[in-house]
Structures
1.
Amino acid sequence: MMQHLSDEHTALYSRILEGSAQILPNGLEQHDGQEEFDKSAWDKCGALGLCGLTVPTMLGGSGLDPLSAVIAMEAFGRGCADNGLGVSLGAHLWGCLTLLLAGDRARNVDIIRDLATGRKIGALAVSEPEAGSDLAAILTTAVAVDGGYRLEGRKCYVTNAPVADVLVVLAETRPGNLAFGLSAFCLERGTPGLTTPAPVSKMGLRTASMGDVELDGCLVPKSARIGAEGAGLSLFLKVMEMERAFILAPAIGSMERVFEATRHYAQNRKQFDQPIAEFESVYGRLAEMYRRTSLARLVLRDAAARKGSGGSITLEASMAKLTISDAWVANCQDALAIFAAKGYLSATGIERELRDALGGQIYSGTSDIQRRTIAKMLRVIS
Ligand SMILES: Cc1cc2nc3c(=O)[nH]c(=O)nc-3n(C[C@H](O)[C@H](O)[C@H](O)COP(=O)(O)OP(=O)(O)OC[C@H]3O[C@@H](n4cnc5c(N)ncnc54)[C@H](O)[C@@H]3O)c2cc1C
């Protein structure tokens, strides 16, 4: 369903769909099994312009508005079945790069250019062992020293950390003050005192490399700080608005792929002398899968169009994140019910899609946190 797309959007969708289908023509099952991040697949994303979709062209990016960017990422998700790669791209683009752009872009031109072209990989390190949903619990500190800051602490669950060249880190510069006590820092791999241990093993999105970031007496110059001291929370909230709204755009393409495969299976698999698609419980699930995908796409594109016309989209971002992630999980469960035993086997790819989809209800704020944000924006709670 390609409703209300301009000729330019349709051409963009077709170009990215075609290019994405070449990114990982085979080997996904093996990469997933061995939890491998595929750098050559990443490089192909860079060549397609996916690593810097919304970055201005003068900074090496594709210069797209938010609606065009999500249309490109929907096409990516449809053409490339590697959902882990989609999340790697999302953390790089909507997390790391968006924060750098919101901060001192003039100071970080070279880094932004390398990230936007995909020559470098970015990560956004916020979560900590004691600080998940609750940013006020962040314990990583950045203490002002002669000429710069000394960072101490540990970040966890950071997408791309084991492979990232650039890590944007949130740390306390004034402990105990959430509103003005956090600052953002741009660290490059190789900075003494910065280490990224081996990737952690996880349930889904296994081709996206995830791990800790350890900061042990990590000395950085003042120029590594992004924005003013104490501006970390406001920068992070700007980033979260974009990340929450758009990080699940590839899931729309994934849902379309899974729907097509499930429809084909249901129309060809026969039981009791008829295609199983004839059973009400099966065609009902297919109808629901299509409905959820279409609604999720509308909510996503609405958020993107609103962002493009300026202004805040805090409410729309949480609505998009919640709607898409719930639809993705429900659709995978319906696909599994229809494929039954065949879907339970790794070779079909359905069980991998379900494992991948479940992560979408956690990263960039859990579903509970999205509901809480929606209730706050509607002034149901203060
Ligand atoms: C695949 C994946 C990728 C990730 N990538 C990154 C990354 O790149 N960078 C990064 O910094 N982090 C990343 N994370 C971490 C992610 O941001 C956190 O997992 C998330 O913010 C939730 O934190 P938590 O897991 O510690 O859960 P907790 O905050 O401990 O929450 C536990 C439970 O309590 C509920 N809960 C907590 N507070 C409230 C509340 N106020 N109201 C209602 N319910 C509440 C939650 O919904 C959840 O059910 C990633 C996580 C995953 C799974």
2.
Amino acid sequence: MKISFVWAEDKNHIIGKDGKLPWSLPNDMLRFKNITTGHPIVMGRKTYESFPNGPLLNRLNIVLSRNENYKVPNSVVLITDKSQLSEYVKPDEEVMVIGGSSIFEIFKDDVDRLYLTRIDHEFGGDTVMPRIDYDKFVLVEKKEGVMDDKNIYPYTFKTYQKKIN
Ligand SMILES: NC(=O)c1ccc[n+]([C@@H]2O[C@H](COP(=O)([O-])OP(=O)(O)OC[C@H]3O[C@@H](n4cnc5c(N)ncnc54)[C@H](OP(=O)(O)O)[C@@H]3O)[C@@H](O)[C@H]2O)c1
């Protein structure tokens, strides 16, 4: 399986605040939806609980928790270790790791592709993206975000691919 990261961060690599996103950026939500739909998504229990409307549609939602009795609906998969992923994901699938911080940390050495939204603004927050060694990646796509009355911060969509050693 191929592992990808999908996330948005601010100037200081902040990704979360009080269990939520520190910003509202509907255009990024749309990009997130487009990138992840049809693929398995892997997330930490806290990120899963941050969804206001429950599991995300049209994607297999896989939740990591150390609590094997954590209750999820039938449509959602609970795992307690990343080694269990292969039971639910086909070998040729692109698995979208969507955070939070602790889950990105777990998959840091496995990730092949990075879908980053860089928001050019400083937000206060309590959750930070783990450090990524960008020397190991090549930028394959870069797109400046469109700003409007609902998307009020400057942002850039970037896609990186792991270099082949
Ligand atoms: N900007 C973005 O792109 C983005 C993306 C995702 C999340 N976020 C934000 O980030 C924050 C949440 O991130 P977070 O790092 O605090 O939490 P998280 O990674 O979403 O979830 C943490 C939980 O994952 C489980 N877990 C962690 N390591 C594990 C391991 N080795 N094995 C099994 N289970 C493990 C534990 O669940 P149990 O406690 O149940 O054992 C842990 O409490 C929120 O504010 C959210 O909005 C932002």
